[in-house]
Structures are given as C-alpha cells and as structure tokens.
Amino acid sequence: MHTAIRVGAVLAAAATALPVTASTPAMADGYCRAGHVCMWEDAHYQGSRYIDVRAGGPYDIDWWNGDNEISSVDNASDLYIVMYDNDNTTGFLGCVAPHQRIPSLWRNDEMESFIARDFC
C-alpha cells in the first residue's frame, strides 16, 4: 500500500515532533534528522522542505506542492531511497545511497514517488 504524502500535513507533523528553534539547526540549515529522508523544492536544500519522513514507504508525493517539484535530497537513513518519476513507484528515476546528500538532482522536478530499501 502506498502512503500519499500531503505536504502540509508532513510539515505540520515535523513541526509538532521537533519544534524549529535556534537550537535545532538540522531543521533550518538543509539537513535531515537521523533515519529520515528530506526533499526540497530548490537546489542546495533551499525553498520549501516538501518531504521530511522516516525512511520507509512506499510514498507517493501527493497534491500540488512537492509532486514534480523535488530538486535536492538528504538521505539521513541507513537505506537506499529509490526514486520514481510516476506515482505508485513506477518509472524508475534513480537511487540515493544511505547517508548521501544530493544538492541538485540530475533529473530536476520529476520525482513523484519513492521507497526506502536495503538495495537499489
């Protein structure tokens, strides 16, 4: 079963789970919490942080914010993040290795779904 991510709900949940303050720079400077995967609207971890979820899935990037708008990724988990350019994990796009940060995706603004796995 795919989990649809409504971007507003993810951001609200993240804010509830870990308040953004001066003492939590990981939420403010383009880094993701341990065990999570985060994705931003713009290159170099700028713009809206559309995705901030615990590695798992599969996840469809749902709604109008985030869907086909991902430009940079921080995989702070021990798993590979397998990216797809269609919903329902179809149309293989590429992989992000465990603990890899990609400041500018090679296929910008194309991702629509992803899943965390122990292989790519």
UniProtKB/TrEMBL annotation:
It holds the Pfam family Inhibitor_I36. Residues 1-22 form the signal peptide. The keyword tRNA-binding does not apply. InterPro entries: G_crystallin-like. Keywords: Signal. It comes from the Bacteria. The keyword ATP-binding does not apply. This is Peptidase inhibitor family I36 protein.
